[in-house]
Amino acid sequence: MGTCVVTGSAGDIGGATCRALRAAGHRTVGIDLAPSPEADLSFTLDLMDEDALAQAMAQAGPLDGLACIAGTHAMGRVTDQPWEDFRRVLRVNSGGTMLAMKHAAPHLRNGGAIVLMGSVSAHIATDGSVAYHTSKGAVIGLMRAASGEFAPRGIRVNAVSPGWVDTGFTNRALALLPDGEAIRERAKAAHILNRMARPGEVAEAIAFLLSDAASFITGEELFVDGGFMRRK
Amino acid sequence: MRVAVVTGAAGDIGAATARAFADAGHALVLLDRHAAVLPQGAGGLALSCDLSDPGAVAATFAAIAARFPRIDALANIAGINHRAPVCEMRIEDWDRMMDVNVGAMFLTCKHAIPLMTGKDPAIVNMASISGHVASPDYPAYVATKAAVESFTWALSGEVGPEIRVNAVAPGWVAAGFTRAALKTAADPAALQARAKAAHLLGRMAEPSEVAAAIVWLASPKASFVTGETLFVDGGLMRVH
Question: pTM for this one?
Answer without folding.
Answer: 0.93
